[in-house]
Amino acid sequence: MKRQVKLAPDHQKLYQLAEQQAGYFSTRQARTAGLTRPLLSYYTKTGYLQRIQRGIYRLSRFPEMPFADLFVAWLAAGPRAVISHESALAVYDLSDVLPSEIHVTVPRTTSRRGKTMRLHTKQLRKSEITQRGGLPVTTLARTLADLAVSGLGEEQIRLAISQALEHGLMTREALKKDAQKRGGRAAQMIPKMMAEMTQ
Predict the structure, then answer these.
(1) Which residues, other chains included, contact 138 with Cβ-Cβ below 8 Å and sequence gap of 6+?
(2) What is the pLDDT of residues 46-60, one digit of tens each?
């Protein structure tokens, strides 16, 4: 019978993981750096780590970063989760309204639900996901199309489209194409709004 060799914890690997995620990491990610549950418990007691919630930890000395709550929600929802809807709009800095819930899109097989998290089930294509500030978020065109379908106020969507185009965050063509893919309210509303902006 082969003896299992316990690997020493790789603190450098853990730091590199957490650095990309505003100082946060999941229990699953900690395992890849050789940190077992007993070690996580020990480092939490010594103050090296903070336990944020079940399965989510933070390096205590890591500086506070923007969107910490979004990182926690994303890690809690699982590695295939993507920040979306109103929360994605906040990441793009195109909304003055802070959503009361964190919006996350997950594959249909995900069944978890958080108290302050709104899960949207959808299989996103790779082309509909991007990275922003270390967070996986829906592309801006996809975000706006999702918001049109979800029923966000037209004035907020119009303002977000206007600012996004003004700052060169996306093209009219990309937005129109994504709206047409979604169909329904998105396909009607978004092209109409863009047409009104050129008048």
Answers:
(1) 82, 83, 84, 85, 88, 105, 124, 128, 129, 130, 146
(2) 999 999 999 999 999
